[in-house]
Amino acid sequence: MPNKSLAENEYHQFRLFLEQHSGIVLGDNKLYLVRSRLAPLMGKYHLPSLSAVVQRSMLPTERQLRTEVIDAMTTNETLWFRDNYPFELLANTLLPAHQRLARPLKIWSAACSSGQEPYSLAMTILEAQQRRPGCLPAGASILATDLSPSMLERCKTAEYDHLALARGLSDERKRQFFDPLPSGNMVVKQNVKKMVNFRAHNLLENYTLLGKFDIIFCRNVLIYFSTEAKQKIMRQFSAALNPNGILFLGASESIAGLSDEFNMIRCNPGIYYQKRH
User: Fold this and answer.
1) Considering only CA atoms, which of 53, 62, 58 is closest in space to residue 13?
2) Measured at the alpha carbon of residue 234, what is the angle toward residues 222 and 244, in degrees to the nearest 5?
3) CA 20 vs CA 33, 48, 202, 233: distances in Å
4) Mean per-residue pLDDT for 186-199?
């Protein structure tokens, strides 16, 4: 029987390793999460224990295993139109404010997971353009980034099973924005897919090459980072936004003590943050 336990000192080492490579901070009580996420790699790499997975992944020569370990620890499923209010604010407030923009509206979905957020943003924009012909005459461009190579491949394929489709999608949106496949899965239509560009990116790295954005979505992500890492990310978000640019965080996330470069805009419901001049 493979050994799925992890000694306390090894868990501590692994926490430091994960924070160094991904910025994610594991709490003292997350051993169960490590066990469930890394156990499949024991079989794949014929390693006798979780300890062996952890030890080997820290070796400089084990780049592939290290990538898969970080991938396993940072992969999260998400919902379509999660929390709903950011998409309503985008459709009813932010898009009308940008509707005469002579260039494409630029949006960044940071830590996009399995693609539901950026594709939901694209659908929101297409629906707004149907309701208001002439809105965003130059269109919109959505960059979606994630740390996980496997997640990015799933995003690009844009194929979702019944379970994923049941989480936040109306029947009308399924009809309008998806094509059925013989397998019973559905694939995002081409007019939605072509609005989104996916690429690998670590939020702790430099953002300069990503360009400038009008709106950034980084929701339910900062909770995994240390305070120091959050402050760095907020500074970089501010630098990556155009003047008066907008930042959406998760419903339970706050920038208090992290940044003084944004004004909080209260809406009903929800809030967003606007870059100060």
Assistant:
1) 58
2) 125
3) 18, 25, 11, 15
4) 97
